[in-house]
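re the bet — no i am not wrong, look at it urself. input seq straight from the record:
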Amino acid sequence: MNLKGITISSCIIALLFSSCGSTRNGQKEEITLTTQMDTVSYCIGVSVAKNLKQQEAFGDINIAALSKGIEDSFGE
């Protein structure tokens, strides 16, 4: 298995484990990942979120502002 295959497999596994979580109101939020890039993008988001959650300084981060900052940066 090449590096790309390992990366994709790791992302899919992370996606499966992270999809077991729930939203703040206790209901699961569905997302449709139709392409490989959708899956990779979601996995990057999961990785960033887990990293930020592990750092005590970012425990109360504003998710909406974070998302908007990322969106705006890609729009430049």
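see?? The longest helix spans residues 36-54. told u. also The two ends are 36 Å apart (CA to CA). so pay up
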